[in-house]
Amino acid sequence: MKRHDVAGNWIAEALALRLTANEATTLVQQLYCSLKAWIQHGELTAGDTLPSSRHLSRALGVSRNTVLAAMDRLLAEGLLIARQGAGLYVADLPALLTRAEAPPTVPVRYSNRGNKLLALSGTLSHGHRAFAPGVPALDLFPREQWQRLLRRHYYQAEMAWMDYQTSGGLPALKAALCDYLRLSRAVRCRPEQIVITQGAQQAFELITQLFTDHGDSVWMEEPGYGGAQACFLASGLAVTPIPVDQQGLNPSLAPENAPAPRLIYVTPSHQYPSGVTMPAPRRLTLLEHASRTGSWIIEDDYDSEFRYDTPPTPSLQGLAEQASVIYVGTFSKVLYPGLRLGYLVVPEALAEDVRLAHARLHREGNYPVQSALAEFIANGHFTRHIARMRAAYRQRQACLRAALAPAVAAGLRLSDGHAGMHLLAELDTIAEEGMLVRRAEAQGITLSPLSRYYLAENKHPGLVLGYAGSTESELTSAGAWLSDAYLTLRQHL
Ligand SMILES: Cc1ncc(COP(=O)(O)O)c(C=O)c1O
Question: What is the domain class of 10-98 according to CATH?
């Protein structure tokens, strides 16, 4: 191999700059790591000679033994080679070893399902800025009270909770939740029918794994919730978007030759994102359709607690005794999404299987947190928090409406806002939607385009304006900005 003298040498100077009297790392370690990194990154290449140990020890002001110890490690690893009378030089190493931190060159090939999932995931919003949909008021959450509760429940945690769990959630939480669901949501259930999951998303995945095979058909509301769409598409299901009208998903609008679905996903209390409520006759039609086709209805009851003029609409699950409905709920909206707690209510005959499948597939645990939540619910903090949030969200919505009043006067159509955590603003064209979204982005404002919630080609333009997670002053200023932007756009059309 050809050897090159590394002129006089930058190595000693560069090493001198790097050495520190750092107690955590010895001088030997520092010399070794620096030289190794230069060899691996190609700053020192095969055949480059190193300065002698005597030279380095003088230049660096360290003992010769320190230099020799570092060199010995590099020799032992085969990165350096010693030749009698020629000193040390860099070995000829395979490219794989010398380019340790180069970006991977192996082409990445995701599955078709993976690609569909990634296509949908690119639209996740980061950070909670004005109008982020689905985000509750984190600023109004009773954090101190909750943290006290968490601390106590961690402190008192039973040793048995450290083991693997298969109960489908802490029995105390299931009991407290069951009382709440029966009373507030008219859900027919006993605690044994509940399985606690890591949010609604994991509940959708569990249902999908248990009830469908690759290629099976699922009916999805159109427009509909991206989390459920992602779950079904990533599981390889054939998703049929069924149009939503003023009464929610309309089974009679399903394509004529559509195969019978295994699953039908609906948000009957408050359709996401259109906001419509499914009236009783449509609910009965849907139940009848599911029983005729042998489908399971997934009832996603994500934010029905927030209804401002009338009491919450009772659940679809509670309508019929033996209906094939799986009720899914979440604490993401009523408490906070980082909690990652949700639940399924399944018919009694399935409860054991679903519990076991959940334990097998996802594992369960975090019982101290579940225990704290059980107390939070049982002591009434939960319903009090919901009542406070209902009042706060009504107020926040009013602020947003006031800020958007000039745009509304100029033709912007806003949804009625009787329920939920967002308003829907309908626009005339997709181009208009795109322009507003891009201009808002530049201002640090999250505008979620309604067209993104559609799977089929026929998309309606609009904006999904979350208001629950923003303060009144944020809503006033972001709302005023949006109103101005809308008026400006109209003037130029
Ligand atoms: C329609 C709908 N369902 C469910 C959820 C809650 O999902 P998770 O419990 O996984 O946070 C959301 C949250 O944005 C939602 O919009």
Answer: mainly alpha
Give pLDDT, residue 459: 93
**How far is it, in rounded angstroms, from Cα 175 to Cα 181?**
10
* 39 CB neighbour count, 10 Å cutoff: 23
**pLDDT tens digits, one per residue of 385-422:** 999 999 999 999 999 999 999 999 999 999 999 999 99
What six digits make up the tokens of 35?
Answer: 């030289």
Q: Residue 157 pLDDT more than 90? A: yes
Element (H, E) at 178: helix 171-185
**What is the pLDDT of the chain when averaged over all its residues?**
91
Q: 349 pLDDT exceeds 60?
A: yes
CA distances, 284 to each of 78, 281, 287 (Å): 75, 5, 5
Boundaries of every domain in the chain: 10-98, 113-128+141-379, 384-491
Q: What is the pLDDT of residue 109?
A: 83
Ligand 1 binding pocket mutation candidate from 205, 327, 330 (most atoms within 8 A of CB): 330
> How is the beta sheet containing 217-222 ordered, strand by strand?
194-197, 342-345, 325-330, 296-300, 263-266, 217-222, 238-245, 248-249
Residues with CB under 6 A from ligand 1: 134, 199-201, 225, 227, 267, 272, 300, 302, 330, 332, 337, 342
Q: Average pLDDT for residues 231-248, to the nearest whole number?
A: 95
Task: Name the amino acid, one letter, at 265.
Answer: Y
Question: What would the two tokens of residue 342 be?
Answer: 């949700």
- Whether the bond into 406 is cis, omega within 30 of 0: no
Instruction: Give residue 135 CA to ligand 1 midpoint distance, Å.
Output: 10
Tokens 């745009």 sit on residue? 407
Fold of 113-128+141-379: Aspartate Aminotransferase; domain 2 (3.40.640)
Residue corresponding to tokens 């000193």? 87
CB 365 within 8 Å of CB 341: no
Query: 384-491, what's its fold?
Result: Aspartate Aminotransferase, domain 1 (3.90.1150)
